[in-house]
Design goal:
Layout: H1 4-21, H2 29-46, H3 62-82, H4 93-101, H5 106-117, H6 123-139, H7 144-166
């Protein structure tokens, strides 16, 4: 997996936001981590049947789940850019294999993302967070191509929103 294209698109979006909002030179790391955790919380709400043991399960809205995954991905990529992660990711294939060999259930995978997303500011930690994110994508029944296509769509929408504000 090579994330070069997604990193480039995210960097362009981040740069545009920073420029438009006058945030040059500010350390946005902690705010991005909080944004990522909020998006992960929104995803957790969409898959509440995994952890809301006191409630009757309801049918998941697959489209909303995919959208929330992609919202997480935007901030995860942004943190990866800040951490100067190599976008050609596969060097940690052994970690990925190890994660999937442990066969985390969906709750454990979600919990791992909450834990990892707080410390995703250096390469190896970011990569572990990313592999847990991929595990979540897999356990939720999505293919990476679906997530990537939704990311591209949402990235375009984000640029359109910025253009409307400029105009």
């Amino acid at each position: 997996m090579d994330l070069t294209k997604l990193f480039e698109l995210q960097k362009a979006l981040d740069d545009r936001i920073i420029d438009e909002k006058g945030l040059e030179g500010q350390d946005l790391y902690r705010m991005k981590v909080m944004a990522l955790q909020v998006e992960l919380s929104e995803l957790a709400q969409e898959i509440g049947d995994v952890w809301k043991f006191w409630k009757e399960p309801k049918e998941r809205n697959r489209e909303r789940v995919r959208e929330e995954l992609v919202d997480c991905l935007h901030f995860l990529l942004s943190l990866g850019i800040d951490a100067r992660v190599d976008p050609s990711i596969p060097r940690l294939a052994s970690i990925k294999l190890n994660l999937f060999e442990h066969k985390l259930n969906l709750f454990e995978q979600l919990e791992a993302c909450f834990r990892d997303f707080r410390v995703a500011y250096v390469g190896i930690q970011w990569e572990m967070a990313f592999w847990h994110f991929l595990g979540l994508v897999d356990l939720l029944g999505f293919k990476w191509s679906e997530v990537e296509a939704e990311y591209l769509r949402k990235n375009g929408i984000n640029h359109q929103r910025l253009a409307r504000r400029e105009g």
